[in-house]
Amino acid sequence: MKNKMLFAISALLMVLLGTSDALRGIFSPLFLKGFGFSESAIGVIVSASYLGNLVFLLFGGSLLDKLGLKKSMIIFIFMMMLSLLLLVFGYIYAILIAGFFLTLGLSTLLNTSINIASDSFSETKSLVYLNILFFMQGIGTSGSQLLLSPFSESQRVWNITLITLALLMIPILIILTKSNMKERKEENVESTRNEGKIEYKGLVLLVLALSFYTIAEHGVTNYIISYGIAEGNTSAVMGRYLALYSLGIMSGRLILGALMAKLGERKMISISLILGTISFFLIFFCSMLFLTFIAGFVISTLYPTLVALSRNFVPPSYGSRATTRVVSLASVFDIIFNFSFGFMTERFTFQSSMKILPLMMALALIVSIPLLRKRPE
Fold first, then answer.
1. Which of 215, 177, 181 is nearest to 357 (CA)?
2. Rounded CA separation 358/279 (Å)
3. pLDDT confidence of residue 278
4. pLDDT under 70: residue ranges of the chain
5. What angle do the packed helices 200-230 and 292-299 form, to 10 degrees?
6. Are 19 and 144 contacting, i.e. CB atoms less than 8 angstroms apart?
7. Tens digits of per-residue pLDDT, 251-260?
8. Helix locations, the chain, DSSP H
9. Among candidates 76, 173, 165, which has minimal Cα distance to 116?
10. 306/54 Cα distance (integer angstroms)
11. Can you spell out the DSSP letters for 222-285?
């Protein structure tokens, strides 16, 4: 493995990003009871977070290509620190909206930057290390939920958490400035465009596959508890099924990430989508909720691997832009689905509406067939 120190600080950064991403949900009782905001106001905050993801991904890719990965990440981390400190004043509603717009947008952009930086860890096993890093992000998310949930109404803990996250990013910044990071060779943009090296068909298929997949994955996370209650289960029981799903994703990234080095990314994507489609159909068409761990496990490597695949369809000088644009376009589909899902449940009931998730996974599989047969130059 190359650049062990870079990998170590990337792992720490992923833990911090996972923790940061979880704060919105953990401290929602503080926003409601402590700060006095309404449920609809919290909904605006969630929407602002999604908007931050889109805006930063759309513009961040160009910055990555122009400044390079190392300089861009230093800027992003510094901005992330300031955004976390801004949230200390989140008892002011406008600042809370702005803070989550910035932190969630920057978190997604840093997450994507680390995906791009995975080439610095190994020439042949970059996806293995990438999935380990996503596993570390899961530790940050789950660990913060476990440790901080008992203090979800405490403004003091909220402030301490934000300041601690910002301070822990200082050593990451210092080490990053001294690290060696693989930069992609710049090429003349016009010449590469004229040579036809941007494979637009592959990128379109990849956006569709990633869109259908993220709708299915996030659909379980966002709605399975409500679905289970509608099926007659208690919230406590459904919470355990959701926890098993998250545990499956975490453990799968660690175990299947290592297996990917032997099978290759294309075979792993195919196998994961096939098994994911089967498990999702069994869960939502046959009510086999106990399979949530298996479902999470088999799909665990899909998101980071599909995102990393985007760089195979463009010249090196377009790599960062392609990655961020693919993720941002997939996010648009995800947002549209989540916006319309509430209307679907009102019209067709929760039980019927959730059956769209295995259909989305099946569509991701179908779209990926020509995508994975393709052999980019």
1. 215
2. 8
3. 97
4. 1-2, 39, 123-124, 182-196, 374-377
5. 170
6. yes
7. 898 888 888 8
8. 4-26, 28-29, 39-67, 69-86, 93-117, 126-148, 155-178, 189-194, 200-230, 235-263, 265-285, 292-299, 302-309, 319-348, 350-353, 356-373
9. 76
10. 18
11. HHHHHHHHHTT--HHHHHHHHHHHHHHHHHHHHHHHHHHHHH-HHHHHHHHHHHHHHHHHHHHH
Tell me the C-alpha distance between 161 and 102, whole Å: 17
44, 47, 62, 83, 303 from 40: Cα distances, Å: 6, 11, 34, 23, 30
pLDDT tens per residue, range 238-248: 888 888 888 89
Q: Which amino acid is at 98?
A: A
pTM of the model: 0.77
**Other Cβ atoms closer than 10 A to 156:** 8
Phi, psi of 232 (to 5 degrees): 105, 5
Backbone angles phi, psi at 38, to 5 degrees: -90, 170
- Could you tell me the two tokens for 95? 């600042």
Looking at residue 192, its pLDDT comes to: 42
pLDDT tens digits, 143-162: 887 788 888 889 999 999 99
